[in-house]
From TrEMBL:
A single GO cellular-component term on record: cytosol
Enzyme Commission number(s) of this protein: 3.1.-.-
Protein name, UniProt field: Putative pre-16S rRNA nuclease
PANTHER family noted in UniProt: POLYNUCLEOTIDYL TRANSFERASE, RIBONUCLEASE H-LIKE SUPERFAMILY PROTEIN
Iron recorded as keyword: no
Organism: bioreactor metagenome
Sample GO molecular function, one term: hydrolase activity
Keyword set includes Hydrolase: yes
Enzyme class: hydrolase
Keywords, comma-separated and alphabetical: Hydrolase
GO biological process: rRNA 5'-end processing
Gene3D superfamilies reported for this sequence: YqgF/RNase H-like domain
Amino acid sequence: MQYILPFTNRLKKEFPDIEVVFIDERFTSVLAHNTMIEAGLRRKDRQNKALVDKIAATIILQTYLSSTI
């Protein structure tokens, strides 16, 4: 949070009409791995950090979208 709060404060100052929302992203990598296992991805593919991060980012976005509907 040391770097996040100053960054979000700058965002809020620069774009006062846009809401800044914090999403708890703990455990999203675990959820991403579970999703990959359920999808039948091979172990080698599940070790691809970039792919894990993409799936985790998707989970974070889905969480946000679900909470705003």
